[in-house]
Amino acid sequence: MSKETLLIGTRKGLITYKKSQGNWKYQGISFLGIPVNLTYVDPLTNTWWACLDHGHWGCKLHKSVDQGANWEEVTAPRYPENTEIKNGEMATVKYLWAVSNGGGNKPNELLIGTEPGGLFSSSDNGGSFALNDSLWNHPSRRDYWFGGGRDHAGIHSIIVDPRDNDHIYVGISVAGVFETKDGGTSWEPKNKGLKADFLPDPDAEVGQDPHLLIASPSNPNVLWQQNHCGIFRSENGGESWSDISQEGGPAYFGFAIAADEKDDKTAWVVPAVSDQLRVAVDNALCVCRTEDGGNTWNDFRNGLPQESCFDIVFRHALDVTNDTLAFGTTTGNLFLSDDRGESWRAISHHLPLIYSVSFI
Questions:
Q1: What structural domains does the chain harbor?
Q2: DSSP secondary structure string, 241-274?
């Protein structure tokens, strides 16, 4: 199915672009002036979801059943009263960081990942939410989960296995990848082969920092992650991970990663220098692509700024549909490629800071 709408979550609202006669045109804005850090369109219900990070009122959750023409605020997930992050520190939702449906046989289920590290589920399409107690009470959480760039650990990635909706992965910064095979009753870390060079034990079972976790649409056993300490891939559903970072090249540190819809060996990243220098590599923006599962990488620069560039791309700000890719940057540039990332053109240079990009 052709996806000809782009939803752009920005520091100043949700911006929509539509494709018309081969060109992408500005369509409009919702939530003008309010940060929209994430959007999600549920393919099962066609409900649009928008996660707001209001500077004064905090996290807000909105939904639209008419493709963004009208929005309704729903009560965002909340931690049960007296829930503690650690002894004496009460848990309150600071950020809505991931949204997913519950899978094909659960058409009214919605999953939301938050900071500080909570996974919430709704069985009535957002009417009410419940905290997943098993993950929150995992023995590792209090001592080994911590914030990476934010105050607390947060769930930014949710993957529901299309073959078995009780099989779910979450990506947590900073903790790692966790998996359930029983619909969330129990959880196990899946971080073998990852490296956390910021820890005394880089091979620690918990304390890894995936920046984004995704599955190949054509083969859910193949998982990818852009990690704080490189790029990693698993061919066995997360039982083990291989470091596929580019030796001597730019494909190493970054936040975003996207996988090809039909080829489980192809993926794209947009690299930055490092955690200390979160700017484009050599002040030149590039997109890197592998077509052999990470054995080799090619970087593409045609149409992207190659001097005096400080752009980076946040974890949810890269998306792909068929041969078309789009990404947005922290300086408000929106780029699009129609040839699998080999050449690019700017849709806009004047948007607010971009948090998320998604084709629908």
A1: 92-350 (2.130.10.10)
A2: -EE---TTSS-SSEEEEEE-SS-TT-EEEEEBS-
Q: What is residue 215's predicted lDDT score, i.e. its pLDDT?
A: 98
Confidence of residue 1 (pLDDT cuts 50, 70, 90): low
The answer on pLDDT for 76 being more than 80 is yes
Q: pLDDT averaged over the chain? A: 96
* Three-state DSSP state, 283: helix
Residue pair 288/298 in contact by the 8 Å Cβ criterion:
yes
Phi, psi of 217 (to 5 degrees): -60, -30
What is the reported pLDDT for 65?
96
Measured distance CA(334)–CA(191) in Å, rounded: 33
CA distance 122 to 52: 18
Whether residue 142 contacts residue 111, with contact meaning beta carbons closer than 8 Å, is answered with: no
- Compute the distance between CA of residue 254 and CA of residue 53 in angstroms, rounded to an integer: 23
Mean pLDDT confidence for 313-340: 98
Q: Which two tokens stand for residue 297?
A: 């990488």
In whole angstroms, what separates CA 187 from the centre of its chain?
A: 20
Q: For 281, which DSSP code?
A: G
Name every residue whose Cβ is closer than 8 Å to that of residue 79 and which is 6 or more positions away in sequence: 90, 91, 92, 93, 118, 131
Maximum distance among all Cα pairs of the chain, rounded to whole angstroms = 58
Phi first, then psi, for residue 87 (nearest 5°) are -55, 120
Mean pLDDT value of segment 305-329: 97
